[in-house]
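Internal ticket #5521
Category: modeling
Description: The requester needs a full-assembly model to guide mutagenesis choices. All entity lines are attached below as received. Residue total reported by intake: 800.
Assigned to: D.W.
Attached entities:
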Amino acid sequence: MQFSNTQEQEEFRSVLRRFLEEKSPPSVVRRLMETEAGWERESWRELNQQLGLTAVHIPEAYGGQGFGPVELGIVLEEMGRALLCAPYFASTVLAATAIMQAGTEAQKRALLPDIASGETIATLAFTEPNGRWDADGIEMRATGRYRLDGVKSFVLDGHTADLIVVVARSEKGLSFFTVSGNAPGLTRRALKVLDPTRKQARLEFRGVEAELLGEEGGGAEPFARTMTLAAVGLANEMVGGAERLRQSALDYANLRVQFGRAIASFQSMKHKQADMLVDVELAKSAAYCAASAAAEGDAELPAIASLAKACAAEAYMQTAIHTIQIHGGIGFTWDNDSHLWFKRAKSSEVFLGDPTYHRELMMQVWGA
Amino acid sequence: MVFRSCWFLSPEVMMAEPAEAAVRAEVRAWLEANWNPDYGLVEWRNKLIDSGWGVPSWPKPWFGRELPMALEMAVEEEMQRIGAVGVAKTGIRRLAAATLLAHGSEDQKRRFLRRSLTGEDTWCQLFSEPGSGSDLAGATTRAEFKGNRWVINGQKVWTTSAHHADWGLLLARTDWDKPKHQGLSYFVLDIHQPGVEVRPLRQMNGYASFNQVFFTDAEVPPENLVGEVGRGWAVATTTLMHERRGADGISRWGKSSDRPGRVYEEERAENATVMEPYKWYPQRAGRADLVVERAKATGRINDPVVRQEIARLLILAKTAEWTARRARAAQLQGRPPGPEGSLGKLVGSHVARAAARVHTLITGADAMLAGDDAPMDGLIAEILISVPAGSIAGGTDEIQRNIISERVLGMPKEPRTDNDRPFRDVPKNLVV
């Protein structure tokens, strides 16, 4: 495993950080989170034209940049730090990964270039109202050749996506399909979400015409691999957010004066900050190792991905709780920015499976 | 698409440091020409020291080659590859050598460095006292200059290896009218003298790996003062820095080869003595490595609550290991160490405590037993009663958090009331 980034990767990170600080300051996050879409095409175009971010891990043959999970991890970490409001996780991470894992060569050539360029916003609809993250939770039926019936929920950016990759069951078993965002018979409703910086939708399918993606009945393996890679991606995004919160809590403790001195000089604050640093640094190690394991095709990847997801989720949530506590009363106000990341932490803790779920997965993969 | 051109200078290009390849080739050639396991241990180490490969990061006038630390690691790897024995590094010798190299007089370096590296001289560290643990600068062991020598009175504690050491690194108070840090001096003390009494200290886990050392008019000649009078704290800081840095080295340096050959035999004997006090240290660290197998053996692996606890422990242990490797990888690349390099001691305590909790959960009622009535011939019991040491020894968790928050995060120190006045006037413990 790679335990240290190259100079070039770190340079990329710092350019990206500056870019996102400029394009996605809290004022912009607050403006976009109040919209129903949750993002806007103008800034999405900028993101891709200037840095080619939507293409980062998509192979060059399909119009991508041809980098791997480590570079994707860096992008996600910085986006998590900036709390970027964009359909990036839905389109570039979930949908593009699913297409790369499940699609035929011709389908990859047809679908991926527009996702890589950012012209098409795609998403992956897999979870249903039962809220299960494993394949057994998928009940949606695909009949004939092919019509989808059922309900998908918790679909990231599902109400705005141009293209929806759907996981459903045909008589041959678990299969992937693609559906246009405005297909007849598809009803989309934006859900009221706890984290307004990441929108979710409920999608009702009534006899919606769909195109098979890959092999009918061959969806189990690609689905498992997609979930693994998504967990790695989300872990990296989460450590970016956690690091940002930790730093903001430290800055505030240095600034805030009570009892005639900066509260940062009290041991209770210093020890809490040291503990926060430990939480965040351990979670970073997990997220980075998971990205590296994904890049190297490590046989233990499924276990390491679940480890990273569980570890980063707990670190993010714990850091968010400490950050609001350190801010005191002001930390519980709408005007203070802490709650924006707190809500992302909560939503990410649950999305793709909570820490309990992933710890159990990890144990099973490790044969324990 | 901006990054395509500059982004893809591959890692291979960066790794191909010409210096490293040359150093490896040179040390390999020297070892092939000179290494022979039939040497006596001291004889071989003298040869190694003279070649400059024993301590390649040291200055050239003192047995070194002034290589960066990253290259010293490369040299160590080359030695391991051929099975060559290195200079004496176990125990306090390394700390003594590093401290004297930095602060010792020419005469002290001549007298002590080589013999420490060969292993002929062994050392102990006389810092902690019953009245000053976390607050080492509050030492009250006194050194008074009388006639032509320093006279030492007082008591030290938690002294590893004092029972077989030749020399002690002593921190003692020479001025009670100055603020606490300015009244300390640093000495090399001969343990083999009538004024020094070494008594073993029995711990809660039954072992006696440490000692108490009592001084009654013990003597130190003036040439054994290290640095200047009143500047002992700076010297002690060097020792402590090396102690923290080497905290993970015990397992690496304490291993001896089971190969035949005189030099190996003598190294095994040396390690048997030096490593004896450390034999319960793996248990102190919690033995997370045993947990899954033990849970399978007891059947507790099927309990979902136990599985969650085991998983939490494994995640903590794995991420602790990866974090240490991140720090080493950054060091090898010659980057300034990030915060990940300062967390190891504190994280180690977390792992150990979590492991003890999980071992208890897995073991059930048998966790009340000890010795050969207990699982694994008492090993599990030993874990349960050794773990509390880890978060105290070598800097408590609380002190580690202070260090992390002040030195890594740059947070302000708490206001102090003990270092702005003569040490004489500072409240102290009553030592009975």
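Resolution: model delivered.
Comment from assignee: The mean pLDDT of chain A is 97.
Ticket closed.
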